[in-house]
């Protein structure tokens, strides 16, 4: 994950953390020469001077920290790390080295030490925006979206104009909305609020018929709600005629949820005020999510916050790469795939090395089975990020479709090395092994699917089929019984 802030800006910022005390005599001269070299951009000379300083004064933590900065500025993270580690060993309360050790670990996708170093830096410098930003990015990469949103909110409060922070804040809120929606569906599948949330999701996609079905189910449970009846009638008109007039009814926060903001033109101080109010609402609600209504309000509230955050990005710079990326994602969510691809192309024009954009384009082509167009995009993504498990999986799927089992196996195994619990990759490679008669390997991968989800009925069925091929009737019968039991539960 790259593209948040310039490395050179980060390194320059680190100097503000340090303020080393001036040494005497020869050290003073070396220090003066190092500072002068840094001012003129002669990093190689500055590095040599600081290397000489730490030889003469091996207990000077600030010198090791500045040496680490110089290595870091020159792209030598492998040399920067031991310099920073030496600095905090001598003086544990230097925030700068902790911060940069966290940034380096984050860049290496090593998120546990990144979190540890960044949290220590935050304790030492609680008002530093960069620290909160990278803590947010790290938590986001760990799928800890609540923690990510908390840190990114702090960063945005310190710098309201950082588009990268606001973009990731919007995405964090979006993930929290999805998590709440899944909770609503899993815990309250027959709730009127589940019907409303589903209806809203379909309406965002402009998928009018299923949206209408969900509104009608909700109306059966709330027959006296006038706004709900209006919504149901308006959707029915959309189903009958896509050019039906706009919904002119007065919105209701409970019935309309996040859709009340769908065509919002709120901006400026009012926009920031709305965000602040919703952030307060969500903080109050997070400790109360016990009923279906509370979970529904959380799902819709986080969706509102995601949308409002995206509006701030558009307002700050409508032509920024993050603004185009958000537009692309909104178009993709509305099933406007060609328009989404065009917006993703606009992102690449502004930031060609941004990760996950070629993947997003490739995935849209892959889903549409336009494999000749998908493959180069996915391969380009792997040039930017060789450790992208989903890109590897999709390339494997393309190879399997074309009959190249050897290449498919290679990609699936690479994806599983990075993401061992990827069910789709286990199932895909199991199919290759079963077709090749490598049944023991098939069993191994099906068992791993069931380790992830023991109620996966398809895995039980396929495992029964493999056992039959091996003549293991008792094992096959057991798996078939488990399959039938899970299938019966699904249809209840």
Summarize the model shown.
By secondary structure, the chain is mostly helical. It is 76% helix and 0% strand.
What does this structure look like?
The structure is a single chain. It is globular, with a radius of gyration of 27 Å. Among the domains are: 120 residues, Tetratricopeptide repeat domain (Serine Threonine Protein Phosphatase 5, Tetratricopeptide repeat), CATH 1.25.40; 145 residues, no CATH class; 73 residues, Alpha Horseshoe (Serine Threonine Protein Phosphatase 5, Tetratricopeptide repeat). The protein has 492 residues and is mainly alpha-helical. Helix content is 76%, strand content 0%.
Query: Considering DSSP H and I runs of 4 or more, what fraction of the residues is helical?
Result: over 70%
Average predicted confidence as pLDDT = 90
Distance between the termini: 43 Å
**Count of alpha and pi helical runs:** 26
Question: Structural class given helices, strands, pairing?
Answer: mainly alpha
CA radius of gyration: 27 Å
Unreliable spans: 1-23
| General form | globular
Main sheet specs: none
Strand content: under 5%
Order of helices and strands: HHHHHHHHHHHHHHHHHHHHHHHHHH
Number of strands: 0
